[in-house]
C-alpha cells in the first residue's frame, strides 16, 4: 500500500519542478538513443521502440510518485456557498463554475469559477506563487434576465481586488470575458470603484473564499496530473 504524503504548496511545487527536470532528462536520453541507433543503422524502429519504453517507464515512475500525494483535508466553502456538482470533472480551471449561492431572497444567483492568477497575467511567476494568488470570474445573474454582470477579480489570502467589470450574456466564460466590451476597474472613478467593492462584499465575495478555493485547485491539479499520466500512457501503448 502506498504511503500517502500530504499535498501542500511546497511539496506540489517541488514535485512540479522535479517533473520538469525529469522531462529534460528524458529528452537527453532520447537524443543519446537516436545517435546510437544512427550508428548501428537502426534509425527507425530502434528509436521508436526505445522512446516508447523510456516514456512508459518514466510515466509509471511519475504516476507512482504522484499517487503518494494525499489531497488536502476536506474543506467546505463559506456558507451559504455550495460546491457545484461535477466541478472537478472539468479539465481546465476557469471554464466552469465551482461555487454557487443565491442572494436577495433567491432573486440573484452568483457563480464563481477560479484559476491561478498566473494563468491570466503572464507577469506572475507560476512556480513562485504556490497558489497564493487566485483569479476569480464572478457571474451575478437575476431571475428573468438573460444577461449578467461579470467581475474578474484577483483573490489573495488577505484581500480581493477587482480587475474588470462587464455586463453581457450569461454564457461568457473566463476565456472570452476580457475583451473590448469589458471595463478595466482602473478606468472607473473612485466612487464607482468603492460601490462595486461594496457590491461584491455584500454577496460574500471576499478573502474568506481563499482557503477553500486554494485547496480545491490543489485537488484539481492532482486529478488532472493523474489523468494526464493515464492518457499519455494509453496512447503510447496503443502506438506500439
From TrEMBL:
One of its GO terms (cellular component) is mitochondrial matrix. This is Mitochondrial glycoprotein family protein-like. It comes from the Eukaryota. It holds the Pfam family MAM33. InterPro entries: MAM33 (IPR003428), MAM33_sf (IPR036561). Transmembrane segments: none annotated.
Amino acid at each position: 500500500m502506498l504511503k500517502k504524503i500530504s499535498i501542500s504548496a511546497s511539496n506540489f511545487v517541488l514535485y512540479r519542478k522535479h517533473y520538469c527536470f525529469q522531462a529534460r532528462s528524458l529528452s537527453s536520453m532520447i537524443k543519446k538513443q537516436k545517435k546510437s541507433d544512427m550508428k548501428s543503422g537502426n534509425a527507425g524502429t530502434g528509436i521508436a521502440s526505445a522512446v516508447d519504453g523510456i516514456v512508459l517507464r518514466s510515466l509509471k515512475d511519475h504516476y507512482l510518485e504522484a499517487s503518494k500525494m494525499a489531497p488536502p483535508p476536506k474543506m467546505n466553502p463559506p456558507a451559504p456557498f455550495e460546491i457545484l456538482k461535477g466541478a472537478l470533472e472539468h479539465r481546465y480551471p476557469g471554464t466552469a463554475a465551482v461555487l454557487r449561492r443565491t442572494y436577495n431572497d433567491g432573486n440573484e444567483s452568483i457563480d464563481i469559477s477560479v484559476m491561478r492568477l498566473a494563468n491570466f497575467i503572464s507577469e506572475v511567476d507560476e512556480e513562485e506563487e504556490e497558489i497564493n494568488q487566485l483569479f476569480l470570474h464572478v457571474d451575478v445573474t437575476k431571475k428573468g434576465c438573460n444577461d449578467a454582470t461579470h467581475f474578474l477579480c484577483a483573490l489573495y489570502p488577505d484581500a480581493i481586488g477587482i480587475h474588470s467589470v462587464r455586463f453581457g450574456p450569461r454564457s461568457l466564460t473566463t476565456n472570452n470575458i476580457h475583451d473590448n466590451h469589458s471595463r478595466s476597474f482602473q478606468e472607473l472613478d473612485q466612487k464607482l470603484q468603492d460601490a462595486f467593492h461594496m457590491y461584491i462584499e455584500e454577496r460574500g465575495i471576499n478573502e474568506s473564499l481563499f482557503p477553500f478555493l486554494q485547496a480545491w485547485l490543489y485537488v484539481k491539479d492532482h486529478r488532472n496530473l493523474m489523468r494526464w499520466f493515464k492518457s499519455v500512457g494509453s496512447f503510447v501503448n496503443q502506438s506500439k
